[in-house]
C-alpha cells in the first residue's frame, strides 16, 4: 500500500481518537517508526484533533480539582512520622499534635468504615426500643382499663349487698 | 505551577510525563486539559453529575501511568481516556436503568458527522455501524477522516 494512500485512509484519525482496533494501532505505530511521512501526518493530525476538542471545551464545575485532590493518596491528613533523636536535637519542639493540618475545602467528610456498622447497630437498637416501648405502653394501658373495670365491678357488687 | 506547565508543552519527546509522576504534574495536567476533557465527556455524557465523576476519574492518580506511557501527546491521551471513561460510566448508568442497547435509528444519511457521532460520541464500534449501515469499515474510517478535515478547513 502506498504511504499517501495509507495516510489518506483515515486510519491515523481513528488511531488518534481511540477508535482503531488493536491490530490497526500496532500497524500505525510501526508505520510511524518506518515512515517519516506517517509520523509527520500524525503530528499534524494531533494538532487538528486537539484544536477540535479545544473548540468544544467546557470549564469544569468549580471545586472539581479539590475533589480530585482529596482522592490523591497522601494528600489527606497524614500521620506525623516519629521524630528521630537527631532531628529532635536539630529542631526545637513546636507542635505536639500527631497529625498534620491540611486544608480541605470540599463539602464531603470521610469517616472510618467501622462507623457504618456502628450506625447500623444504633439504628437496629433504636427500632427494637421503639417497638418494645409501644408494646409496654399498650400493655400498661390495657391493664389500667382492666383495673378500672374490676373496681367498678366490685363497687356494683358492694352496692347490691 | 509554571514548572509543571513547561513540562506539558508540546515537544518532540511527547513523553514529558514519563519521569514526573507527582501531584504537581497532575495539577498541571488538570489545569491545561481539564476543560478539554470535560467538553469531550459532556458530548458523550450530558448529565452533569456523571460527567463530573468521569472527569474526576480521568485525572485520578490511577490514570497517571496511562498518560505517562501513552505513545501519543498528552492532549490526545486525555481525549482517549476522557472518551473511554465517559462511555464506561454511560454503560454503567444504562445497566442500572436496565436499558438494553438499542440499534441506532437513522434520521439522516450517513454523513461523516453522523458516523463520527455514532462512533466517537455514542461509542458504537465500526462493526456495529457497518452491519446497520451497510458501509464497509474502510468507508467508515474514511468518513472519520472527512469529518476531521471538514473541521480543519473551516
From TrEMBL, chain A:
Keyword annotations from UniProtKB, A to Z: Membrane, Transmembrane, Transmembrane helix
Where does the chain cross the membrane?
117-138
In this chain, the stretch annotated as Disordered covers: 73-96
Chain intervals with Basic and acidic residues compositional bias: 76-96
Q: Spell out the protein name for this chain.
A: Anti-sigma factor
Q: Which organism is it from?
A: Larkinella punicea
Automatic annotation (TrEMBL), chain B:
Top-rank taxon, per record: Bacteria
Under what name is this protein listed? Sigma-70 family RNA polymerase sigma factor
